[in-house]
Amino acid sequence: MDLGITPRVRPLIEQVRQMVQTDIRPLSDEFLSLVGSTGNRFEYSERQTEILESLKALAKSRNLWNFWLTDSEKGYGLSTVEYAYLAEEMGKVHLAAEVFNCAAPDTGNMEVFERYGTPEMKERWLKPLLDGQIRSAYAMTEPDVASSDATNMSMTCVRDGEDYVLNGEKWWISGAGDPRCAVYIVMVSTPSDDRPKHSQHSMVVVPADAPGIEILRAMEVYGHDDAPHGHMHMRFTNVRIPADSLLLGEGRGFEISQGRLGPGRIHHCMRAIGQAEAALELMCRRSTQREAFGKPLAQLGANFDIIAEARMKIEQARLLCLKAAWMMDQGDRRAAAPWISQIKVVAPRVALEVIDEAVQMHGAAGISQDTPLATAWTHVRTLRLADGPDAVHRRQVARAELKPYTNQAT
Amino acid sequence: MDLGITPRVRPLIEQVRQMVQTDIRPLSDEFLSLVGSTGNRFEYSERQTEILESLKALAKSRNLWNFWLTDSEKGYGLSTVEYAYLAEEMGKVHLAAEVFNCAAPDTGNMEVFERYGTPEMKERWLKPLLDGQIRSAYAMTEPDVASSDATNMSMTCVRDGEDYVLNGEKWWISGAGDPRCAVYIVMVSTPSDDRPKHSQHSMVVVPADAPGIEILRAMEVYGHDDAPHGHMHMRFTNVRIPADSLLLGEGRGFEISQGRLGPGRIHHCMRAIGQAEAALELMCRRSTQREAFGKPLAQLGANFDIIAEARMKIEQARLLCLKAAWMMDQGDRRAAAPWISQIKVVAPRVALEVIDEAVQMHGAAGISQDTPLATAWTHVRTLRLADGPDAVHRRQVARAELKPYTNQAT
Amino acid sequence: MDLGITPRVRPLIEQVRQMVQTDIRPLSDEFLSLVGSTGNRFEYSERQTEILESLKALAKSRNLWNFWLTDSEKGYGLSTVEYAYLAEEMGKVHLAAEVFNCAAPDTGNMEVFERYGTPEMKERWLKPLLDGQIRSAYAMTEPDVASSDATNMSMTCVRDGEDYVLNGEKWWISGAGDPRCAVYIVMVSTPSDDRPKHSQHSMVVVPADAPGIEILRAMEVYGHDDAPHGHMHMRFTNVRIPADSLLLGEGRGFEISQGRLGPGRIHHCMRAIGQAEAALELMCRRSTQREAFGKPLAQLGANFDIIAEARMKIEQARLLCLKAAWMMDQGDRRAAAPWISQIKVVAPRVALEVIDEAVQMHGAAGISQDTPLATAWTHVRTLRLADGPDAVHRRQVARAELKPYTNQAT
Amino acid sequence: MDLGITPRVRPLIEQVRQMVQTDIRPLSDEFLSLVGSTGNRFEYSERQTEILESLKALAKSRNLWNFWLTDSEKGYGLSTVEYAYLAEEMGKVHLAAEVFNCAAPDTGNMEVFERYGTPEMKERWLKPLLDGQIRSAYAMTEPDVASSDATNMSMTCVRDGEDYVLNGEKWWISGAGDPRCAVYIVMVSTPSDDRPKHSQHSMVVVPADAPGIEILRAMEVYGHDDAPHGHMHMRFTNVRIPADSLLLGEGRGFEISQGRLGPGRIHHCMRAIGQAEAALELMCRRSTQREAFGKPLAQLGANFDIIAEARMKIEQARLLCLKAAWMMDQGDRRAAAPWISQIKVVAPRVALEVIDEAVQMHGAAGISQDTPLATAWTHVRTLRLADGPDAVHRRQVARAELKPYTNQAT
């Protein structure tokens, strides 16, 4: 169970870290400062486009691109463990994941296209996604049902001749606010008495410019709209898509989403670890540079303990993520599932705790725009809900734990 | 030690509660939705002014005004315990405290004017403040020093003939963004070798339109500017004020601020309890109305425990606040001080925990603009830093605790 | 809602505190050191009897006796709030509650006899109990069922002519190891199809010397048998009692136990607060007297924070207990019930946390026989299980909280 | 960084696990039930000796012996990571570590003899220790000083001709109560102005039967004396040892103890993980077998969450221990030190939390002698103090963390 940095990935980590800290960080800050400068927060100014494209070009030129394609000939063929170390570095700065074409939800969507897409889909959507020319979204959550129980999904998808017709609302569609977002993968309800409860849903591919799609509003995360990316609330009214837009077959929606979400959750978690690590670094800098009562903060009260606890939590959470990644690499998704549930609970929690302590160590600066901490906190807070709330994942962990003891009790 | 609702205050609580929930809540939401509608987030639209002034007029007409004037002939003569119950109700909706002319920082500033102001100040500032015609700010925190150690305050205030001349920066000046803010009370450094360390600072009164004052920017709280109120970053350049603007005498700044902050902290804490109570109510509603896995959320997993823990925490925190208020009412500020430090740590912490659980119970809606929870969380989070960070207050509590055992160890 | 120390109870508190600390503490330690000195840990040596009886005589002579008889002509007529303050003092030293004839389970049992007993029972059991001549036990918990769900109680009680005949096992019968224990109040199953689920049990009075009763063993609490008091595991084999030994009527067992347990839980909780307060005092003494790295422990690392948190927790828990006591005093047991459930969770938890921190502050001495801390911890730990585990009480609190929102959801 | 089970150690783990669960567990329980059966708790009955020796003989016959000798020709040459997995299994049952001759403090003492002992010491002490014929103790902690600051150690060791003469007290000398304990390794003060603060102490070897050594009493752990092993309080009065009993040279005591404690802490921590794992297993069994309110406990309230959290904590703590072991295997003790400090804090804490939840799940049985949980809890609780209290280890972690940022701040 090698959870370490392999010789193969070591130089990549160095290159990514260096590019994230040196090249991306300052431009990422500038990019964010320009949000809304055109009068529309979901529009790119010329300078924003320039920043993003120049960084992507630089990454491509250094062959630092599409790392997430684990066991694939198209990418580096990295293992999930190896990729995890890269994801951690990319989590430290806002734009970084996109610069290396490793951002959610595109990575998951690309995997879906690669695995289940028709040749036409691969040509029309996968290719430009792999090239970083378009972006995509993944539409799962709905406003009127408890999405923690995915069988509640209710957007209708009804066969009409050679088409399917979609009706309903989705919200928290991350990235759908981006003008470059060209395609959605959408979970829909396709009920049939012939199939069991977990086979009543399907997944369809919908062009973003299909008639009948409205963006109602941007959902806010603790008051912030995350523009120009956005988490959009959308309405689908008689949206018509050709029948071959339905992936894999009716009723197989969860099969696809399960496969899709595993790696995505590991990426999210490792990026969260990256944010925790960045927060700890800021906390250490602050505590050694700022003085009160005649001493550096580090030497006051419980601050040594706070710093030590942060280090211990991060190390444990990282090792757990690496073990989950390693389980994923063993090829048995069923066996890996409870491990992914574990990190889905642990990594955001640890990151939130560490970031919150870093906020407190910074005083009023910590909650302000003068450090990345406040933004990091609200971002990571979403992870306790996205892709299943903590309670659902804990339930999965407990069920796996109890299985050897009884089949009835779970 | 009567911590209960007295017959005198009971009908007031009912009236305030009813007005907060029925009259203020919907208009408060409308008011917030209009922020920025004029193109300037720190400007009031006509409708915003209309909302605020009509509500204030209604409160005045019902004689629900200036409750905070405890032991004063001008107000109700409520005890701090009695006022605490009203503050809790006012904490539940954004605009409420201002509607009853009970909002920070005005209440504290009015107390300062009442107690230490010259007749001219009372006429020029106190009167319109008591009438709700102007607003005020309190300028303490500075960007370049650890304000947790108040002796660090460095804004200079130098005598020059009949004037004092101020230079320096202040930030997190709450309310200074409001166009109605007419006056600042400002902590300044007036060093003198003749006085001990805690007597090197003074407090001065500065008209908001004094030449040399610049508002540099609005500080953001987890990405939100709290407009039109705002927490401003300001620069004072050669700001000249007449010598009688200095309150009470040189070197007596902390004497004033200590007297000022005690009641204010109780108000803050009881409003935080109000927000916790409001969050628990939302949590209960959500958990009984929303279903997942075929059951109301309340009946799933740990949700009973989460609700019970929230109730137990709130009750304890409220009782502690009431006891601190009762200590304040006994008239010995020195004896009350460690109690106020206790609630300053406890009340925000409890409110944050309860609100966060309410967020989680609401799923993605909880972090969004669709409930008041996310805003409440970020607002209460500031209280762990404002008026002294947790660590400083814990230190005060510990020092008081250890005093009987030794004088050296503290 | 007066939660304070009344003029009436103030001198009693002083007298009790003084007697506990000065008279009882040293003799209590001697008493405990003599356990087992006769070769039988559940036997009293002459000196043990002398210690106990002389202290009881002293208490009686000072009229510090039977305080627990709230609203009764026989006692002081103290309110529950007033008694709570006394219970706190009595919680600080091992023998204290018994010295004042205020120890569990006698107080609860005496209340049962007073309220539901026949004249014969009052003469035979209540009178000597009130005089401190005998002791009693309360037999509820059974080894083979989950006693957290009290409807599981399974000891049979079958009518046979003029008698009832009991069969079954009880364990954790506190005080049943004491040779002075003369009578048991026992929960038994008396099923009847005519009565609902919560009316299938009854309560009977059983002389300790009734044939057929065996003491199987002493249950240990973290390795300690709590001799000579003991928590005994007992077997009842064809134990025959006259029919009028059944209190109040068949099926009314829970009615009695509910009434009995409310005040008892408050007493337990306030004694736990007393133990927390005693632990905090030890922690403060240690932290100011012991040095490491050239400083008193108090000034090292997080110790100020640990002390402050202990103080804040204790104050909150005490106020909550006092409020629950006040609710009890209002006379509506149904309304008071969720408050008692709250303190049943909170008070032991807080006491355990404070004691554990005190242990840690004492280093290896803390876990040893050289301080009362280790014993206090194991004793308080039982309270998280006795009279209902935490989870059951949290459930009660949540049900009460949710009631206004729905009747179905609970 | 291979943290997994190697092919080499896999069969050993299976053999050890099987022997622990099948052979040792029942006899370990019998052994403990016989403590005190001779009338002296620190004496072995014939049956106790038989049990222990027969199990040791069995282990030896299977070549399951002295695993702890990592990188040594005498043992298996296991890496610390490999050994860690074995330690976890041995932690699950009381006698197990000794059965495989892997018990503290012998393993540490044997390493000291191996590394620093004279040929005579190796013959006289190391050989019979390796054979399991005698046992040993390690005398560090003293009653009158804060041993968390090891420079406080005050037992005197004065040169007198060809001898050293020792005077002072030691307590918590684990294993010194065992009649088979033949030798002590003792930390003594040998002050010299020529040496720095951390070079004022030395380590000496003292035969247990040297004149002048008194065992004053057995220290109790939460009321338990841990007989026949014991944690003894001892007095040394003019104990005379030959000069060559001083290891390595005057002033080098800490050098030896640091080297000694690293592996020992890893062993302790992995055994604690084993106890946590055993507790979780009991919790799962109980929660699926016991019913209340008509359902298995597992399905009630927060129990799924409790089980899931236990699993997540254990996995993280184990991975951290394994990483610390791996760091140790890299050969740089200085680099490994903060990792060992991390697990020293984390592993006992996690084990205590999991065991406490298991206790609660078992109801009153959990705190009693009917499960191993209560004993396990008190045993693991000592680990938060032994070999340095949590606070000291957190301090080490923080110092290591802050080093890159400044040299002054630590």
From TrEMBL, chains A, B, C, D:
GO biological process per UniProt: fatty acid beta-oxidation using acyl-CoA dehydrogenase
Entry GO CC: cytoplasm
Requisite cofactors: FAD
Pfam families documented for this protein: Acyl-CoA_dh_1 (PF00441), Acyl-CoA_dh_M (PF02770), Acyl-CoA_dh_N (PF02771)
Domain called Acyl-CoA dehydrogenase/oxidase N-terminal: residue spans: 14-132
Record carries keyword DNA-binding: no
InterPro entries noted in UniProt: Acyl-CoA_dehydrogenase, Acyl-CoA_Oxase/DH_mid-dom, Acyl-CoA_Oxase/DH_mid-dom_sf, AcylCo_DH-like_C, AcylCo_DH/oxidase_C, AcylCoA_DH/ox_N, AcylCoA_DH/ox_N_sf, AcylCoA_DH/oxidase_NM_dom_sf
Ranges where the Acyl-CoA dehydrogenase/oxidase C-terminal domain occurs: 251-400
GO molecular function, a single term: acyl-CoA dehydrogenase activity
Domain Acyl-CoA oxidase/dehydrogenase middle: 137-234
Domain of life: Bacteria
Keyword set, alphabetical order: FAD, Flavoprotein, Oxidoreductase
Assembly information from the UniProt record: Homodimer.
Family per record: Belongs to the acyl-CoA dehydrogenase family.
Protein name per Swiss-Prot or TrEMBL: Acyl-CoA dehydrogenase
Species assigned in the record: Pontivivens marinum
